[in-house]
Amino acid sequence: MSETLKQLQEVVIVGEPDQARKLAAQALEEGVAPLIAIEGALNPGMQVVGDRYERGEYFIPDLVMAAEAMKAAMAVFEPALMARQEQRRVLGTVVIGTVKGDIHEIGKSLVATMLSAAGFQVHDLGVDVPACDFVKQVQETGANVVGLSALLTTTMRNQGMVIEALKEAGLREQVKVVIGGAPSNPEWAQTIGADAYAENANEAVAVVTQLLEV
Ligand code: B12
Asked: What's the pLDDT score for residue 116?
């Protein structure tokens, strides 16, 4: 890993948004591909933060600052991620959000960005999204994919609630549902009747592309 990426990872871990912004821009100037920076430095940095929180060495304010630093770096990388894609036909329409009760947004936003960059039209509903909002957005946009993020064991069941709400609204046949977020896994996807699970943003693009056969 380059010295700049090492430093970028470190400032995410210690939660310094200004430094993160600066180092992200520096990495781009040095010709680092945004995806390499995100997957090689930012994500492992957040992993360290999570581990420290779990061990009782970090507290909520540390998580907040680390997240702010990660978001600051992401804001620099996003346009670069998008710019690398030439304009082409829309591959499908995706409605994505973090389910009700859950305010973790970084992973969901990364998946949204990667899907946009890959040629999907993405409607990002944000975080803490009630099931009825997913239903409404699918109705309004005619989406063919719904992406459900949950980072908490206590909110993952709300992924299932959205699927139930889609069924009740008669929309389940129209959409493929893909789920993600740390506590989810392929077995959970099967349990709640989702079509697929993806472990990270790259895999999400591959899985959605495969589901829609585009
Ligand atoms: C940052 C963070 C926060 C920040 C979030 C800020 C923000 N703006 O997003 C804040 C401080 C708000 C926060 C709060 C809480 N957090 Co928190 N948080 C984290 C942390 C450290 C990092 C998450 C992150 O951003 N990762 C980086 C991104 C890029 O990775 P990702 O989210 O996993 O996403 C990737 C994949 O999962 C996947 N993916 C994600 N979404 C989707 C969706 C789809 C459709 C697909 C296909 C794929 C996909 O692709 C993504 C990109 O590769 C994690 C620890 C960890 N290691 O995950 C804990 C963690 C998730 N938090 C945890 C906890 C307990 C909490 C709190 C309950 C703490 C508290 N006591 O208040 C609250 C809950 C608040 C709420 N109601 O949601 C626990 C959850 C434990 C559990 N199993 O339930 C964790 C695991 C920490 C821990 N080790 O204990 N948190």
From this structure: 86
Nearest CA to ligand 1 atom 48: 180
Q: What residues are in contact with ligand 1 under a 6 Å CB criterion?
A: 43, 46-47, 49-50, 53-54, 60, 63-64, 66-67, 96, 101-108, 110-111, 147-149, 151-153, 178-183, 198, 200-201, 204
Among residues of the chain, what percentage have pLDDT more than 70?
97
What atom in ligand 1 is closest to the CA of residue 38? 29
What is the distance in A from the centroid of ligand 1 to the CA of 107? 8
DSSP per residue over the chain, as a string? Answer: --HHHHHHHHHHHHT-HHHHHHHHHHHHHTT--HHHHIIIIIHHHHHHHHHHHHTTSS-HHHHHHHHHHHHHHHHHHHHHHHHTSPP-----EEEEEEBTT----HHHHHHHHHHHHHT-EEEE--SSB-HHHHHHHHHHHT-SEEEEE--STTTTHHHHHHHHHHHHTT-GGG-EEEEESTT--HHHHHHHT-SEE-SSHHHHHHHHHHHHT-
**According to the model, what pLDDT value does residue 158 have?**
98
pLDDT tens digits, 192-206: 999 999 999 889 999
Is the pTM higher than 0.85? The answer reads yes
